[in-house]
Amino acid sequence: MTEHQSFFERPNVKKEVFQVAQGVPFGFESVSNSALGIGGAYGSWGESYDNVRLRELVAQRRGEALKDEDAINLSELGFVSRHHTPLLNIADHLEVETLVGARMLQEAARANGWEPADVQAVLIGSSGPVTPDYLLQICQRAGIPESALKVSVHKACDGSVAGLHLALNPGLARKGQMNIAEELLGKKVLVGGIEGLSRFTSDTRDKNALQLFANAAGIIGVIPGETFKFLVGKDHEAFDGEGVLAIRMRYPHSRQNENGSFVEVSQENSAHIRVAGLMHEPEDGSSVMMAGMMGMVKLFVRTGVQVVTEVFNEYAELMNKLGTPEKKISVGVVHHANYKINQLKAKHLKNAGVAFPMPWLLSDFGNVSAASNMIAFLRQLPNIKPGDNILFDGFGAGTYYDVLAVTMGG
Questions:
Q1: Which of 42, 118, 134, 301 gets the highest tally of CB atoms within 10 A of its CB?
Q2: Three-class SS of residue 47?
Q3: How far from 174 is each of 151, 188, 273, 283, 367, CA to CA, in Å?
Q4: Residue 41 neighbours by CB distance under 10 Å
Q5: From CA 311, how far away is CA 316, in angstroms rounded?
Q6: Is the pLDDT score of 135 beyond 50?
Q7: Which element (helix H / strand E) includes 133?
């Protein structure tokens, strides 16, 4: 990929302009693998900024020029472009993101050979939803049945993998609450992340956040137990008490630590469940505040290596029990926080005797939080074969981790 190529310039991207305010560009790409019976769609919206032009946007948002010493070497971190929306009023932001969400649900369903009316459940991760009932609004506009189960997952960058984990692993169910995985077994399910991070970060002056985060969405089709078969998995909390990556919660949460967990699960109505993670929030009331780039590395790598290693060892034990000890993880679908974090994580995993491919695939998006794992999966999808075992590694502010291994194919 060249330094200035944007996602919109890819040959299979379909582009249009949403007629909101002065017009907001939108593009998406559909992907499917007929051998697996799996498909999905991913995309972004807003104007494309390369690393040079981004400095102008950051200066506008901060109200002052970005100093040379504060400019991140974004190419070194694996990013060459990203998408940002203009500063809109809240009604226009809501309209744009609702249009995006509804369209992505429709296109993801069709990439699986389904109509929106066929979908029986939708699980969407979102770090800072534009409105608390965002998932309900996009499902209604997309034509998803009112009876379909809808699960809003707010665990920052871990949101989409946490949603996939909930859909596949019956061991995650809490006493007295719906066992989502058992409920969804054999059903047509859409799982993904939708992140309007340009809007979300527009009120911060944090120079690092403004350079790293941007808009994107990625949604995949899943039939639990058929096209995605759960093998092993683990969720983990290691609360960021110091606020190394502080995030404002724009979703309902009591801000209490109940029953030893920072994640609250609530049933909004018979068809809507909300999974909400407690965040260390910025003291100045802004949306995001980062203690520094090295802080993110320390925050995610040490515990992340521990959780991935535990799941990998459980996977190896399971393969031994099944009499297939030679069966390896074909590829790891890892959250793209930045390339250095992923490189360092791979290095420490290798030192622990854990190794599998972890390709870097999101240079043209920036850090897009919960959308990144699903985009990375869809970009790998054409290369995945029936029977391949895949490891999903999700992690995000809070700090929350979901790691799981699955067998692919229908």
A1: 42
A2: strand
A3: 15, 23, 13, 32, 31
A4: 30
A5: 9
A6: yes
A7: none
Domains of the chain: 7-408 (3.40.47.10)
Output DSSP code: residue 76: T
Distance in angstroms (rounded) separating the CA atoms of residues 90 and 166: 31
Total residues belonging to the chain: 410
CA angle 375, 379, 385 (to 5 degrees): 125
Which pair of structure tokens corresponds to residue 321? 């029990």
Token digits of residue 316: 């190896």
Kindly report, residue by residue over 297-315, the tens digit of the pLDDT: 888 999 999 999 999 999 9
Q: Return the number of other C-beta atoms located less than 10 Å from residue 2's C-beta.
A: 9
Could you give the CA distance from residue 357 to residue 388 in angstroms, rounded to a whole number? Answer: 13
357-358-363 Cα angle (round to 5): 140
d(CA 226, CA 206): 44
Query: How far apart (Å, rounded) are the C-alpha atoms in residues 35 and 41?
Result: 17
H or E segment to which residue 87 belongs: none
Instruction: State pLDDT tens for residues 217-247.
Output: 999 999 999 999 999 999 999 999 899 999 9
φ/ψ region of 31 (left if φ > 0, alpha if ψ in -120 to 50, else beta) reads beta
pLDDT in tens, 317-345: 999 999 999 999 999 999 999 999 999 99
Residue with tokens 């078969």: 229
Number of helices and strands in the chain (H, E): 10, 17
pLDDT digits (tens, 9 = 90+) for 155-187: 999 999 999 999 999 999 988 889 999 999 999
Q: Are 98 and 138 in contact (CB under 8 A)?
A: yes
Q: How much is the pTM?
A: 0.97
**What tokens were used for 239?**
């609360």
Beta pairing class for 329-334 and 288-290: unpaired
Whole-angstrom Cα distance, residue 384 to residue 377?
Answer: 10
